[in-house]
Amino acid sequence: MSLMAVVKFGYTLVAVTLLLMIWASLSRAIELHVDTGHPPCLFQALCTCSKPAADLGIVTCNHVPLLRVPSTINNSKVFMLQLTGNKIRDLEPQFFQTTGLYRLAINKNPLESIHEEAFYGLDNTLWELELREDKLIAVPSRALRYLQKLRLLDLSGNEITDISGDNWRGLENTLQILILADNSIANLPLDAFSGLPLLETLDLHGNHLSVIDSGVFRDGMSRLNRLLLGDNQLSYIPYEELSPLRQLRVLDLSSNVIKQVPPLHDLNGIKLSLDLLKLDNNMIQVLYPGAFKYFNVLNSTTLDRNPIVTIREDAFRNAKIKSLSLRDCSISDLSPAAFAGLENSLISLDLSENNLTMVSKFMLNKLDSLRFLNLRENKVDISLLTTNMPSEYQQSAFNSFQYRLFSLDVSGANSIEISLQDAKRMRSLRSLSVGKLLRQSIKTEDFLDFGMELEDLKLFGSNLIRIESSAFQYVRTIKTLDLSENNIEYIDPFAFAELHSLITLKMARGLSDSVIILPFEPLKALTELQYLDMSNNKLKNVPDTSFHFLKNLRSLNLEDNAIEHFSKGTLQADIHGKLESICLSLNQMKQIGQHTFVELKEMQEILIEDNLIQYIQRRAFASLDNLKIIKLKGNRINEISEEAFQNIPALKELDVSFNKLETFKFSIFDQVGTATALKVNASYNNIIVLTDSNAPSIFSSNFYPPPKAQSLGTVSVNLRVLDFSHNNVTYIAPYYFRHADLTLSELYLSHNKLRNITREVFGSMVMLQYLDLSHNHIYHMEYDCFKKVKNLQIINLSHNHLIELPVGMFHDMQSLTSVDLSNNNIRNFAENLIISPALERLDFSDNELSRVPTNCLAPAAAANLVELDLSGNTIPTVSMSDFVQRFRNPEPGEWPEESDYSDEYMYHTARRDHTRVYHQKKQYPQNVLYKSLAWLDLSDNHLVRIETASFSALPKLKWLDISNNNPFNNGERGNNIFKGLERRLTHLGLKNVSLMFIPSMLLSKLKSLDLSYNNLPSVPPDTTANLTRLRVLDLSYNDLTTVPVATHSLTELRWLSLSGNPITALMNTSLYGISPRLEYLDVTRLRLRIFELGAFGKMYALRTLKVTSYSNHRDFNIPRMLTYNAGLENLLVEIDELGTEFGKEMYGALPLKLNNITITGQSLKYLTQYLISGVQSRSLRLTIYNTSVEEIAGEVFWRPGRVRNLTLDLRNNYISRVPNPSQRGWPGVPNSLFLEDIFVAGNPLICDCGVGWIEAWDRKRRQYLCNDPHSCVATRDDVRFATCPSYENRSLSDVLSRDLDCDWNKGFLSSPNTFVIIGMSILTLLYI
């Protein structure tokens, strides 16, 4: 071999190696940053892992019922760990030390506090830490101190009230992003962030900040460029306070109570330079001259949703703003000099959703840099902007704004009719959106003289009827065309002939109702089309050649039509090789024929929900290599042919819920292929018997012994999740699940009628990890019914008729973590019933137990138990012997107390080179401190005696509930009952325990105390002297006559209920002593004779208020009562027995952030027009429940205040009809309400067009509130569960689809209309 050949070979080898390295890195990048839908973890089927074994990669456990972090994680390498919505209460010390985590997210777990060594071992690996919504009351500074690589810390959504500079000790040289949003921080101390010199982003939105001290940002923070202070209570822009932040570029002050932009007094030498300033949702009414003079640069400024009345001349003088948004500000008039000062800087101007009728052309011509102009949903006549200017303003053509614009939007429901030729002078346009047109047709000459750069054209709500031949000849560069909300009757076959570059075509609600055949001829020219949306029309017929010229089509949306048949061959493999998604939901299809969807190599999802499909033929879905999702929910399928699904190896989800299936056979998957993790949802059907052709029937099994599984044929299917819940299953044939025995991980059979559990049905599921058999009629379980089910982790047998359980039923389940046997008739448990050392949760509530079932758990199971629920039994007494045998440390001696190190004491002497100082502060026996009971519920028993120090044998106990018992009848003050819990207990329930006085409780760590439904006449101050950390206190339904003075000493109190007490007066001073940080207050059902409107005046942090509408007070007015509660978000009003009408009490301006109002009370019958008239928030959730309201008048929604988006919850009333609150056909129209969601289940509905408009509204919801069909619910469950008594209690969804055809506005017509009545009366009088 020559030298040259060797050199060439070497270069080739190097090149190949580099390519392989690049490929590997890209693969890794894709794995890390793209959600690929990882497979289930081997150790927990409800979690997902990107890798199978020792290196688990990315582990996600969202909403998995875990009480501890799975031990397998500690024995593996993990790159990212996501634990969301679990029940994890503690993080074991040093648990993560061998994982090498880069990112750890533990969100929505009741942690409350974090052990100081929880993150030990992650010092040099952890970069990102999320602890969101974990009920933390303080920054876990001890646990964070030595995370040397931490760049991001997210503590949002907790209950943190105070922060200090010491919280970030140890993070000074690393932390770049700190998120403290949605906490309860009211003050920022001077040194709060001074020790974080590398911090770049600080998020404090959603707190109670009303003032920022001038010294908070005085030192350090040299790199801070993003400061988010939105959703607080700031009343002014803190110019001076922020001036030291030289690198600040993004400032968010939205959703505060700021009333003006300039400061109240002149400032010297202060200039802020920002890329983005957000002042949305404030109370700014006037933009004064020089409003932005203290900003040197403002590239982007948003003032959306402010009640701006006037923009004074020179308001933007010397303001260097490039992008200005004034959307939805109720502006009705603009001075020609309104934007003076922005002539050389303003590029984008958004004035959409206002009340403008005219915009000065002179003003626009002065804006030399203007390129993007949004006038959507105004009444501006574009013809006045584009005609020749008057002589006094005559300029050269090149200086006119119309020649410079790139984007113009003048569409809208209230737009002035225009001609497309009015825009022809704008030859630089790249995006044009128009509304109503003078002509109802599009012709070639309409775009004559248009520029050649137009790419995005939107003719929205333009009243179009016809599109003529070569209509877009002069704008052939269009890539996106939107013809939605029109009434097109005719499209010439050559209408789109020149649109060879068109990528997206949208005609949602764009065709006339008379068009029932899809206009396929015009589509033939669109050879580059990728996205086609023809949803929400009345199409009935789709010719099989409709899409044969669309070779680049990727997404096809035909949702909400009346299509009766989708033919074989409509989609073909050689043509539609790029098609990824098709939506045919909410049509009238009755079957899916053979080869309807076949050999579409890139198809990933097929959505055919809520049609009339009764039968799916063989090979209807075949050879779809990448298909992942098939949704057939809400049809009338009663049979699925065998081999209906063939060769679909990537299939992950099949949804056939809410159909008419009477049985389910695995043979439909016989040729599906090697699906890796198939999830099948067959819930809400009519399945009575689960059997197949080879298994013995219900009759044969009565007389002959069941055959062996080996003698029956099997179907090759890789099922992981199977849901048969909410059927009528009474019998399951032996070995029915044999086809999935080796793969099935999750099985849901709840809400059926099963009576017994046998080995032949369940005994061979070797991979089963989750089993739900709740809400059945089970009375018997065979001793070996789970013979081979050794991997089961979670089993739910609640709400059955079990009397006893076989002795060895759970003996082989060494991985069992959760057992729910609640709501049965069990009196005793066998000894050592459960032996699993992994047991975490045990629910024996609502049975007939007469003693604590200590002996049912093996020592290993008892030692690791975290949660035990024994409520609703008949246990008469509790003693230490009930717990000592199983839960107590086997070593003799006293239980070790948990040290209570204060923040001042910790780590002042600990340095990095003295690690043992840190790690030896607490050392306990492993089986005592970390593996014992933390949550115990003994409520609703027959307890009359609790022995002294009974609970001291539970050294980890934090949550205890002994409500609805009588343990204090012997006159004890209770101090001995809680002996041993003084330094541990955080939650205590003493509801309805017949207390005449509060027992002495030396519980220094108690955070929550329930004393409701007792006989307490008062709360002496000495009883709360030791409860200094109390945050939640329920004193409802006692005999209190005044607000207890003892509550004044509870400085940490955040939640207080005084409901149902005989308190006679709420004076302005009654609540002054209560912590001003109180966030929840319930004062319903008091016996008030005096109610002063300033009673809540000092509660600046109040977020939730529950109050009764005291009808005996003549001047009772809720807005006046809430004048000083700027942070209020949730309001519940309970109507008292004297009130039958409600509304006028809400007249006036409500707090700006109030967005959730609930009205309740059985005496309520009528709602008036003032109900929501004072709401200032743009979005509102209005809930009306447990009332006697039968019909809601349309006038309730005539005065919606500033509300634009409404969610209406009317469940569980006596309502028969409800009007459509939406006043326009789409959201975003000024001064108009749009319904975002509605709930009507649980009412005696009269199913006519009084509620039939819901179907038409649902179409609009899907069209405007859903980004795409896959991310949106086609038919909401509420209309499936709502019933129509006049239609034999059929579901509302069924009646709407089969019997009613109501238009959008029918809801108004069916409601009493006062104006109509008055008008008819006047006409009658005139006639007489």
From TrEMBL:
It holds the Pfam family LRR_5. GO terms for biological process: cell development. SUPFAM superfamilies: L domain-like. Residues 1-29 form the signal peptide. Keywords: Cell membrane, Leucine-rich repeat, Membrane, Repeat, Signal. It comes from the Eukaryota. InterPro entries: Leu-rich_rpt, Leu-rich_rpt_typical-subtyp, LRR_5, LRR_dom_sf. It is found in: Cell membrane. SMART domains: LRR_BAC, LRR_SD22, LRR_TYP. PROSITE patterns: LRR (PS51450). Its main location: membrane. GO terms for cellular component: plasma membrane. The keyword Repeat applies. PANTHER family: IG(IMMUNOGLOBULIN) AND LRR(LEUCINE RICH REPEAT) DOMAINS (PTHR24366), LEUCINE RICH REPEAT CONTAINING 53 (PTHR24366:SF96). This is Chaoptin.
